[in-house]
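Handout, page 2. Input:
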Amino acid sequence: STKMTFLASSTATSDLTGKDCSPNTIQWVNDAWATGNTTAAAMMQRGGDDWYFLTVNYALGQGIEAEASNYITKNGGKVLGSAKHPLGTSDFASLLLQAQGSKAKVIGLANAGADTINAVKQAGEFGMQDGPQKLVAFLIFINDVHGMGLKAAQGLLLTESFYWDLDEDTRAFAKRFAQRPGMNGKMPSGNQAGVYASTLAYLNAVAAKGSDDAGVVVPQMKTFKGKDKLFGDIAIRADGRVTHPIYLFEIKKPAESKYPYDYYKLLSTVPADKAFRPIEQGGCSLIK
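Output:
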């Protein structure tokens, strides 16, 4: 029987290429280790050495907070506190006031989706964008920013593996994506780019081997090292983790945005070899 290949490109857990790794899995885009560690590293490089977290109280938020906290404390920073909230919180006022009161230089939003949007909007209402504290989102996508608008989102920092306006190749892909039926000019998110890039890499391996059996295709995929049009310099490791650069962006002010979806300013780049958990630390049984 043919073994199926599992292409994970919007999956936050780092266990997929760690203790739960499989010879049939390839994981693209950020995971909890990368999101927590690279965001903490990029902020600390900019002087953000004491932190307060607003964390969604389930595995996703807890995992990101744990990874970031571990990095911060190991590198001489401090975690001053953390406020937990349930999934689907609409009122962040008391949590934001606690974060403000902590005087932490960085407020880390270890949540996603509507929770992140609500927290950012309410922080704006409290005038926190112009305050001394920097707000950073671990998991926010361009469609979230589009939904919020730049007036609410301006000044927010975030990490992403992909931005449609990075270079000629990302723009060419985004243009094709935006012109598809039903897209109405929408630009692709990092996860959508990940689905495309991973599928294309898979199909290239199928074509090269003349087989769609995971036992043949996945080892072929793992031989790739070079330039991916959407994710830059990539390699596919033995544990199934695709490594690529991760970027720290700041969301532009409305006056700085010159055309639709012109939302991000690139602040720094974490290179591929630093952006993901070192292979020997993951506990993947495929690594001898």
